[in-house]
Amino acid sequence: MNKKNKIKIVVNGKRLTVNLKFSLENLIEKLKTPINKVAVELNEEIVDKKKLKKIILKNKDKIEIVHFIGGG
């Protein structure tokens, strides 16, 4: 695969390489993350889940995916 068609991102502290034009929604699907049970942060800003499809990742983006945990 051509390196020119790839970008490097960081997800929860781990480096990943993904295709150009990869959206946040694509990332969530690739990670098999249940979107209704997480909060997504892109470069230290919380992302509205309705906009995941429209946000295209860029080289060196930092994504944090935080899972909600119930408790008492």
Task: Describe, in plain words, how this protein is organized in 3D.
The chain has one helix at residues 24-30; strands spanning 6-11, 14-19, 38-42, 45-46, 62-67. It is mainly β. The chain has one domain: Beta-grasp domain (Ubiquitin-like (UB roll)), CATH 3.10.20. A five-stranded mixed sheet has the order 2-1-5-3-4, with no helix packed on it. The model has no long low-confidence stretch (mean pLDDT 92).
Layout of SSEs?
Layout: E1 6-11, E2 14-19, H1 24-30, E3 38-42, E4 45-46, E5 62-67
Parallel strand pairs: 1-5
Antiparallel strand pairs: 1-2, 3-4, 3-5
Can you give keywords for this protein?
elongated, Ubiquitin-like (UB roll), 72 residues, mainly beta, 35% strand
Q: So, the CATH homologous superfamily?
A: Beta-grasp domain
Provide the succession of SSEs. Answer: EEHEEE
H/I helix tally: 1
State the helical fraction.
under 10%
Strand content: 25-35%
Number of strands: 5
Mean pLDDT: 92
Distance between the termini: 49 Å
CATH class: Alpha Beta
CATH fold-level name? Ubiquitin-like (UB roll)
Order of strands, main sheet, comes to 2-1-5-3-4
Q: In terms of structural class, how would the helical and strand content be classed?
A: mainly beta
What does the largest sheet look like? Answer: 5 strands, mixed
Low-confidence segments, given as residue ranges, are none
Number of domains: 1
Overall geometry: elongated
